[in-house]
Amino acid sequence: MPHTFKYNDHIITPQLIKTDIVITFFPEMGGDSTTADNVLKQCVEVLERIMSDDAVPRNIRRSAENVKSILMDERVSEAIKAASAISILDEISNDPNIPLHTRTLIWNVASQLETIPVA
To answer: Is residue 70 in a domain?
Structure first.
């Protein structure tokens, strides 16, 4: 496969990286290096990038802003934030008008939020 590389047993191809964002969504398995706060911060950064992308339809940008506000709410536990955000992200990832690179980013954000422990 040309132009691919391996990172933590994952094969990275140009199709996975459609923007100039360096996707850092490959946490070390079984390690404590990625805390819930770090995951939330990474997700917020990606959501901000989606919100500032003019190629993304307005309704998707609004939903990304809504998810960002949920993730930044200090009054709610990390598990509740993650569950609420995943629900919204699942809805918008099924929008037929979403650009493919944005759908990939949304799936990555949702995957990261799924790593946040419930308890």
So the answer is: yes
